[in-house]
């Protein structure tokens, strides 16, 4: 099992940058893929970015792939989402999630239902 806590959100202006952190507790953090999802008011939760257990593979939504960077530090049990050139449409609650990869099955980073554990979310608001 693993527990996840997001931090780093806030209120910023268009064009600003934020770095979100996803701190994990529990055992075997390095065996989980990490995904970032976001949910705006009245909208469905949508995929943002994901990284596999070792950090060797990443995946991004088209809307963020040229602006956001996902990374992880397994020694610190923390994953990150660096967000640059923020736009008002990036405004949402951002969640990190963990997907167990110890069973050796295929990786489906964009599939919300695949993730086993979720954090409580952190609010990102980008003003015009």
Give a written overview of the molecule.
A hairpin with a 4-residue loop joins β7 and β8. The strands form two sheets. Strands 2, 4, 5, 6, 9, 10 and 11 form a seven-stranded mixed sheet that branches. Strands 1-3-8-7 form a four-stranded antiparallel sheet, with no helix packed on it. It contains no helices and eleven strands. With 128 residues, the protein is mainly beta. The model has no long low-confidence stretch (mean pLDDT 95). The radius of gyration is 14 Å and the shape is globular. The chain has strands at 2-7, 10-13, 18-26, 32-39, 46-51, 58-60, 68-73, 78-83, 92-100, 117-118, 122-127.
Which features does this protein show?
128 residues, mainly beta, seven-stranded mixed beta sheet, four-stranded antiparallel beta sheet, 11 strands, globular
Quickly describe the structure.
The protein has 128 residues and is mainly beta. It is built from no helices and eleven strands. It has strands at residues 2-7, 10-13, 18-26, 32-39, 46-51, 58-60, 68-73, 78-83, 92-100, 117-118, 122-127.
Strand content range: over 45%
Average pLDDT value? 95
- The number of helices is 0
From the spread of the alpha carbons, the general shape counts as globular
Q: Tell me the helix content.
A: under 10%
Describe the sheet with the most strands: 7 strands, mixed
Rg (CA only): 14 Å
Helix/strand-derived category reads mainly beta
Low-confidence stretches: none
Order of secondary-structure elements: EEEEEEEEEEE
What is the first-to-last residue Cα distance? Answer: 40 Å
Number of strands: 11
């Amino acid at each position: 099992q693993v527990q996840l806590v997001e931090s780093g959100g806030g209120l910023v202006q268009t064009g600003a940058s934020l770095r979100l952190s996803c701190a994990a507790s529990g055992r075997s953090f390095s065996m989980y893929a990490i995904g970032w999802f976001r949910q705006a008011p009245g909208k469905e939760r949508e995929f943002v970015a994901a990284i596999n257990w070792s950090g060797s593979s990443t995946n991004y939504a088209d809307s963020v792939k040229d602006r956001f960077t996902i990374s992880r530090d397994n020694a610190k049990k923390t994953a990150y989402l660096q967000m640059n050139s923020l736009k008002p449409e990036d405004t949402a609650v951002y969640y990190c999630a963990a997907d167990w990869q110890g069973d050796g099955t295929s990786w489906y980073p964009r599939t919300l239902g695949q993730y086993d554990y979720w954090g409580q979310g952190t609010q990102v608001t980008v003003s015009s």
